[in-house]
Every structure is written in structure tokens, then in C-alpha cells.
UniProtKB/TrEMBL annotation:
This is Flavodoxin. PROSITE patterns: FLAVODOXIN_LIKE. Residues 7-162 form the Flavodoxin-like domain. Pfam families: Flavodoxin_5. It comes from Amycolatopsis bullii. InterPro entries: Flavodoxin/NO_synth, Flavodoxin_dom, Flavoprotein-like_sf, Protoporphyrinogen_IX_DH.
Length: 171
């Protein structure tokens, strides 16, 4: 397996829900025969070693986490030379499974610069026990409380990415 088949899956979140999505994506890509690194976006020094990159962020107040935005900003040129897939995770409650959220404006500009693939939205997880502060507790209450991550959908998306990586990246 050549160097260019290595894929980076970088994530940013606050309560571990997005990290677990990144890990499941990485496992699917690994099962497809790709070499995969899964990293906290804050720990990514560069993307030059990777043939393709997946970047995912949790949504907080309609924004991406700053670590994920910084990764896109700092590596925009190198990312533009590679296939890049973006995902975000957030919607909770009724309709979470199908709700597609558009990219925050700043991230949309970066995505255009990078020529990223179309972004996918995955449902999120809201646990009233782990969020801190009055507004977060309110947000995490009632019908929005729970785990709305659809693992089958996430895995199917990852398998599709894997297929595309294999056809687009020079082996
Ligand atoms: C304070 C707060 C604000 C949030 N804002 C949004 C939002 O604007 N859009 C959205 O879709 N989800 C929003 N969510 C839901 C989170 O994105 C969801 O809980 C996600 O799974 C968190 O990922 P993490 O565990 O990786 O931090 C918010 C959650 C909290 C606690």
C-alpha cells in the first residue's frame, strides 16, 4: 500500500460524539484497505502525508469548532491538492436523521477554496448530564436529548468515500 493511499480523518468536538463518528469512519476506510490516521483537528500539524482527507466538526451555535476551522485555514493550499470530504454533526431530536445543515459561511468559503466535496450532516448526541451551563442544559433537554447518530448511514457514507478515494488517488 503506497504512501498516497493514507487517509486522514480529523475531528473537532467538545463531548466526544464527533470523535466517535470519526473513529467509525476511520474503521470503515481501514476495512476498505486504506491506511487511516484519526486525529483531533488540534493535533494535525500538516496534511502533506495524506492522499485524501476527511474533516468533521460538531456544530455549536451554527458554527464549526475553531480547531477544525483552523485546520482548513492553515492547510488550505495542501488540501486543495487533495480530495477532501467534510462532515458535521449536530442535529438532535425529531428529524435529526434527515436534517441537512449548510456549512457556516466561513467554512463554506474555505470549502470552496479547497474544492471540497459536498458536506454531509450527521445527527448528533445531546446528553444533559455532560453539558455545562444553563442554555446548553436547556438545549439538551426534552426531545432533543439523546443519541441521534445513525451509524448505518455514517458507515455507508464512509464506504462511499473509501471507494472514491481508491478511484481518485494515484495508487
Ligand atoms: C450549547 C450547544 C449548542 C449547539 N448548537 C448546535 C447547532 O447550532 N446546530 C446543531 O445542529 N447542533 C447543535 N448542537 C448539538 C451538538 O452539535 C451535538 O450535541 C453534537 O453531537 C456534539 O458533538 P460533540 O460531542 O463532538 O461535542 C449544540 C449543542 C450544544 C450543547
Amino acid at each position: 500500500m503506497g504512501r498516497m493511499t493514507a487517509v486522514l480523518v480529523a475531528y473537532a468536538g467538545r463531548h466526544g460524539g464527533t470523535r466517535q463518528i470519526a473513529e467509525v469512519i476511520a474503521a470503515e476506510l481501514g476495512a476498505a484497505g486504506l491506511t487511516v490516521d484519526v486525529r483531533d483537528a488540534a493535533d494535525v500539524a500538516g496534511v502533506e502525508h495524506y492522499g485524501a482527507v476527511v474533516v468533521g466538526s460538531a456544530l455549536y451555535y451554527h458554527r464549526w469548532r475553531p480547531e477544525a476551522v483552523r485546520l482548513l485555514e492553515r492547510n488550505a493550499r495542501a488540501l486543495a491538492e487533495r480530495p477532501v470530504w467534510l462532515f458535521h454533526s449536530g442535529p438532535c431530536g425529531p428529524g435529526a436523521a434527515t436534517h441537512q445543515v449548510s456549512l457556516p459561511a466561513k467554512v463554506a468559503l474555505l470549502a470552496a477554496r479547497i474544492d471540497a466535496e459536498r458536506t454531509v450532516t450527521f445527527g448528533g448526541r445531546l446528553d444533559p448530564a455532560t453539558v455545562h451551563g444553563l442554555i446548553p442544559k436547556l438545549l439538551a433537554s426534552g426531545r432533543r436529548a439523546g443519541d441521534f447518530r445513525d451509524w448505518d448511514r455514517i458507515k455507508a457514507w464512509a464506504r462511499d468515500v473509501g471507494r472514491r478515494v481508491r478511484t481518485r488517488v494515484a495508487l
